[in-house]
């Protein structure tokens, strides 16, 4: 274990820029803060809570979509890319949020959803009204069905949310007509990225938001835009993470096609024509790390989410392997590495890590499912977070994880809103459990989420003990652990230093970075610290004789 990984570009110069080491906080607008009491978070609610993010010590926020949308997939179904959904506010509220964030030194990244529009988008309405073969239909992926009367879908692709990826439409005379492709919900028709009109439209959308001052874009399903031209059958069950390249298995025809890269090169040229450092972040569920690294070559995107890291098991060898591999893969293309443990699509890490090690990634947890061990999950989540925040590169946090929030694992099924639950025939619970409005004040209505009791997803009773006002200035709370970590990370320049592993056996990981040494104990026996170690931070108290207990991370000066 003596890999010495520095972040540098191929010419040998260190890569610089705010984003290379930024800690970026994901806001899920529906669930962050509700200003008007309708039970749905909104932009004025976010603006009113920006000081929390300054207090926490993050560098930037990324906002999940807030654009006009029928909300078939919680806003990832956009019907107008240049406005604000009335549930969330108005365009001036977005401008105010950006200005207020900037005045506090926070950058703002917005979500861009280019793989599909909403079925309520004027383009799709026009496509339905137009004839097969028309320019209106050519913006989407319409095909004739198979079978004598076209009654079967054009191919066997499945939707990520379950069920077929094709829906049949009616012709003007009311008779069954062509089929359209939707890799996600029926309300999310896939765009046809071979069509120059689609490309031009998105260049213009980029400029619209760049002109309003945003610092970048998180690009939704960045690995999905281009499909294999023949739309060949794919006999596998659909999974968003299936870019996997195995000897015996070809690349899926809908993911990670080489043609996507030209699109991002063109976008990069637009971003680079603006002052300041505006960035592109790929949401690309692509394996292996070398394939993912192609999205962050010097003339493409700046960052890509590291989902391989998020998916890695909680063992020393697995964590060592994924960290080393991630650093090496991005280093080879001269990009910084990113790290992430939670987001709005996965079971929160405070619950995920409370499942037995090796449990496959659950798609939601509900009543009747094996329940995570909450105390163990939180303990491991805190250790995992301190490990992550000590790594060089950029880190993503998901709202509420700074409170140690667990997944809502006992949400009544009737309350679920994620299309996954219905489309999977009630077999996959989906993502509602990580999207519950977050608690600010233990004794206020909706735990301070808004001025009323209303909350679009039910908040569990345990939210009171996780509320921000129960943790702020409380030594040892999860919130204070995050705050101290972010302060030290900045002080020791951990985000832009070089990681060097130390030999420490199978159950413990130890590395040096930026003048600090970081140790995580995955084993059963307490791990001793070197004599004279000066402990600066730890995810839980040490043993009486100063050793590091199981599932604890420590930052110290050796
Ligand atoms: C991305 C989003 C997810 C959404 C999907 C379709 O994976 O993160 O929430 O459902 O794309 O837009
Ligand atoms: Mg509201």
Jot down its keywords.
558 residues; alpha/beta; eight-stranded parallel β-sheet; six-stranded antiparallel β-sheet; 15 helices; 17 strands; 25% helix; globular; disordered N terminus; binds alpha-D-glucopyranose; binds magnesium ion
Helical content band: 10-25%
Distance between the termini: 18 Å
Give unreliable regions as ranges.
1-6
Mean pLDDT: 95
What's the Cα radius of gyration?
23 Å
Task: Please tally the helical runs, counting DSSP H or I stretches of 4 or more residues.
Answer: 15
Strand order of the biggest β-sheet: 10-9-8-4-3-2-12-11
Shape: globular
Residues in β-strands, percent: 5-15%
Small-molecule binders here are: alpha-D-glucopyranose, magnesium ion
